[in-house]
Amino acid sequence: MTGMVEIDDVRKIYDGGFEALKGVTLTIEKGEILALLGPNGAGKTTLISTICGLVTPTGGHVRVGGHDVITDYRAARTMVGLVPQEINLEPFEKVINTVRYSRGLFGKPRDDARIEQILRRLSLWDKRNSAIRELSGGMKRRVLIAKALSHDPRVLFLDEPTAGVDVELRRDMWEIVEELRADGVTIILTTHYIEEAEAIADRIGVISGGQLLLVEEKDALMQRLGQKQLCIELQQSLSELPEALADFDLDLCDDGASLVYTYDTAAERTGIARLIAALTAEGLSVRDIQTRQKSLEDIFVDLVHNTGNKEDAA
Ligand SMILES: Nc1ncnc2c1ncn2[C@@H]1O[C@H](COP(=O)(O)OP(=O)(O)OP(=O)(O)O)[C@@H](O)[C@H]1O
């Protein structure tokens, strides 16, 4: 099956030699919402800009709706709408003209009814005759979305759509994203807010150091969230796990002074009672016990941290 966006071994080395993308391969299906998570400087904006044809990759290929973003630039570009991270609007222009003009840039015929629809949906209709500079930051962000939607793109990129916006606008944005998906629009967003990825994405990709570390269905990740960890601090240190405990999902840590037991909260039996009995039978005494929920944030931090270490070691 061919995807709406096909990214094949994309690499980017900026002038000056910095390698921002180290071979990213990813297919995004029509109507999917993909959230790209990653720390600052991970390469998220570079990847989005490459798909939008704003950054030329050093290697690999990107196709949008089957059109190569380099060799078939025009066709690919009209399919894409981009809501950038930075507000890049003309301060003296009126809202409605800004959005109309944007549609025109893509060679689409003037369609006032469509522009009205977009402005109403984004609660901008009352402000249509205001100059951009008179708007609040949140309103300017809405204008950026209106601009990106003005030519009816099939793929919408949102680069940090809710950075610095208030809670109400964030919820509004999420609702708009849902509606667009219902229209069959494919949505790719970058975010620093794990909560945002949890709320709206179908799939979550984690990018760090120019590499895609993981792409997984959100529901599968959520199942991992269902896992809890029991941290058992022992009175004595162990050099290795005793044979009798081999069938438990246990890790030895803190130089053998603690055991971490991972269990599924959804399971009928957690196995905790059996584990405690097995510890006692082994003659091990427990100093303290804590439980903690493994969150998407933990998974994310572990992933990014471990890769960082590998790179340092290389
Ligand atoms: N035009 C450029 N020339 C040289 N280096 C660049 C250029 N643009 C970006 N970079 C570098 O490439 C790396 C990736 O940047 P990018 O903006 O893609 O990261 P990001 O994941 O979007 O980060 P953030 O979350 O901070 O927006 C960074 O180290 C950045 O300094």
From TrEMBL:
The keyword Nucleotide-binding applies. The keyword Transport applies. Transmembrane segments: none annotated. One of its GO terms (molecular function) is ATP binding. Signal peptide: none annotated. InterPro entries: AAA+_ATPase, ABC_transporter-like_ATP-bd, ABC_transporter-like_CS, ABC_transporter_ATP-binding, P-loop_NTPase. CDD domains: ABC_DR_subfamily_A. Residues 5-234 form the ABC transporter domain. Gene3D superfamilies: P-loop containing nucleotide triphosphate hydrolases. Keywords: ATP-binding, Nucleotide-binding, Transport. Pfam families: ABC_tran. This is ABC-2 type transport system ATP-binding protein. It comes from Thalassococcus halodurans.
